[in-house]
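Subject: sequence -> structure tokens, single chain

Hey, anyone have a minute? Need the predicted structure for the following. Not urgent.
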Amino acid sequence: MGRFNSALAAAVAVAVVGFTATASKAEAEVSIDIGAEPACPYGYYDYAPYACAPSGYYGPEWFTGGVFVGAGPWFHGPADFHGHVDNRFDVHRGYRGPLPNRGDHPDPSRHFDHFRGNEMRDGRGHAGGGRR
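Reply:
Had a minute. Here:
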């Protein structure tokens, strides 16, 4: 009986080692539902939690026919896109001014006549590059 228990224990150990070796090689499929694109009057920041950006953060090249081309996971501009932003309006850089809420409508008196961009971004959360 002792030899049988030893053989059974060895077989179980080999099976466990074999299973864990193949289990670590398995590819995991990850699907994250980030929800709908934020409805912000002047665009939204390109990082979570994707808060609405204030008027003046994005330059005019970020809008086509008055519609924001998106940023982060909802970016729908061209692959080689780079546009100006004014990072003084970025909360990660210390901006503490007013922010619009999702669903707010744009103020028609705000336009790009005095935009002063100081950084290029690609729409996917990367600074730099592009044409100045």
